[in-house]
Amino acid sequence: GAPGFHDYTVVVGYGTPAQQLPMGLTTGLGVSLVRCTPCGAGAPCDDLAFDPSRSYTFAPVPCGSPDCRSNCSSSASASWCPLTVPFLEGAVVRDVLTFTPSASVHDFTFGCVEGSSGGPAITPPSGAAGLLDLSRDSRSLASRLAGGTFSYCLPRSTTSHGFLAMGDDDVPQNRRGRVTAVAPLVDCPALRNHYVVELAAVNLGGRDLPIPPAAASATNATVLDTAISYTYLKPSAYALLRDAFRRDMARYPAAPAGGGGDLDTCYNFTGQPEVALPLINLRFGISGEILLLAPEQMLYQTEPNNFFSVACLAFAALPSDDAPVSMVMGTLAQSSMEVVHDVDGGKIAFIPGSC
């Protein structure tokens, strides 16, 4: 990724005996994906892979199983359930997943991906063997193990440690006393696997931005994403935020677009004695609870840990105002906060300064 960003992985065990594999995190895919054969020569990935032949609990998911979402027939010559993720080849299978020495899931369903699959696939982070699904789908680790509650904290730098906690026992109640904002979960049929909250307003420097109706879906749906770095708004909403931010930052010298070209509002703070930054607040739901983003959650810095360098507003535009969401909140805006998913309670809570 861009300088200053690093990939987030956790190590879990697949099979019996457990094969320890680093996995990237996804909160909306609907099924975990694991590379089951090494990549071919010259392929743009490493050789990390799960070997089904070394696990005596490994089993294919047959056609006709509730965990098989394909229209395959069990009478076909190959009765294994095929993987239906675009651009990937493989099968849907089951095995034991070991999250911690005391927490495991038997008959955990996941996609066994052929390592040679090409095309614009859903690619795991560098150094990971696949993607660990935490979505609302019944096949996800969150649904199988978490009992309705899980949380994560994404560290801002490589010198700090984050965590992934699953279930009520792993998410202590005493953390709830430090909650800064709570966002109610809302139903969004177009995004049934995702955790969706309602974005009521975006505030910059104490001023609510007049987000036009065209920029909002019926539910002002906002998705929290662990697979992208920046935060994306519908184009009409992003234009309002960008223009207001530029007006407030007019005293500072502009810099070329950064972040791989996605970020078009950049400044060179080199040599500045101080920087007056208008802060962004996000207001969620009808209760209007406010999440204040710290400068480090708002800005992408080309020199990590050096604020007085080139920095860009880490927000960008979605492809169209017709997108099914109003905002996709990426990892930078979520960094250093514990994000508690209380599915049974119908809410997501944010606890700043947790890692």
From TrEMBL:
User: Pfam families recorded for this chain?
Assistant: TAXi_C, TAXi_N
Q: Do you know which SUPFAM superfamilies this protein is assigned to?
A: Acid proteases (SSF50630)
Give the GO biological process terms: proteolysis
Q: Name one GO molecular function term.
A: aspartic-type endopeptidase activity
Q: Which domain of life is it from?
A: Eukaryota
InterPro entries for the chain: Aspartic_peptidase_A1, PEPTIDASE_A1, Peptidase_aspartic_dom_sf, TAXi_C, TAXi_N
Task: Give start and end of each Peptidase A1 domain.
Answer: 8-351
Among PROSITE patterns, the record links this protein to: PEPTIDASE_A1
Which PANTHER family would you find in this protein's record? ASPARTYL PROTEASES, PEPTIDASE A1 DOMAIN-CONTAINING PROTEIN
Q: Which family does it belong to?
A: Belongs to the peptidase A1 family.
> What's the protein here called?
Peptidase A1 domain-containing protein
**Protein source organism:** Oryza brachyantha
